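Supplementary Methods. Inverse-folding protocol.

Structures were first reduced to a discrete structure-token string of length 215. This string, shown here, constituted the complete conditioning input.
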């Protein structure tokens, strides 16, 4: 300990003799620590934080980089899988335990009306196994089922944020009708609070619709 104290005192005396060097060294350390802290915070928020699903390390996202020309489809530009490819992949269970699909209902916000108050919001169309495939338990009500998808039922699940903002977390929202682009959809559930926040899993501000005949 005496040697350590001696070294510390010697270092302080040397730094005091060269204030210019000391200032530059302190600023360099401050900038280095600050930059590393900022980078870690961004990486932690974007990559390292656990997604709000069971076993997030097993979750993968498929896309394509070799889309045929003049392919007519919706989704995130030409990197989205086509409907036939998705239908074939979802039959394969030797590698994947399940495969879900989602696609924006519109590039921009869509018209949504509950009662007499219209507004605009974001929404996704999803496959019937969307929540069950991800292992997500809903906050209220139920999620979609494969039967909802095959029968093209007009049902919707609200995000927790939209349920809070628009309905004040009123549990009686279940069973109510929402008009989306003038089409009535019955609310059957509310997603968990953390699901869909800050672009995680799906960047939704409104909610989810059972997948119609085509996506």
């Amino acid at each position: 300990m005496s040697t350590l104290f001696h070294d510390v005192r010697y270092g302080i005396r040397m730094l005091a003799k060269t204030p210019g060097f000391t200032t530059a060294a302190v600023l360099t350390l401050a900038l280095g620590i600050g930059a590393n802290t900022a980078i870690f915070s961004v990486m932690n928020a974007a990559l390292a934080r656990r997604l709000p699903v069971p076993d997030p390390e097993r979750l993968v996202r498929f896309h394509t980089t070799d889309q045929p020309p003049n392919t007519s489809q919706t989704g995130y530009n030409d990197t989205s899988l086509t409907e036939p490819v998705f239908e074939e992949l979802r039959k394969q269970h030797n590698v994947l335990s399940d495969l879900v699909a989602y696609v924006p209902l519109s590039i921009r916000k869509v018209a949504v009306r509950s009662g007499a108050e219209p507004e605009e919001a974001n929404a996704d169309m999803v496959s019937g196994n969307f929540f069950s495939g991800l292992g997500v338990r809903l906050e209220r009500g139920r999620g979609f089922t494969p039967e909802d998808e095959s029968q093209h039922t007009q049902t919707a699940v609200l995000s927790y944020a939209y349920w809070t903002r628009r309905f004040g977390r009123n549990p009686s929202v279940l069973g109510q009708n929402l008009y989306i682009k003038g089409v009535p959809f019955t609310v059957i559930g509310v997603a968990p609070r953390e699901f869909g926040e800050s672009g995680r899993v799906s960047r939704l501000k409104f909610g989810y619709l059972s997948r119609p005949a085509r996506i």
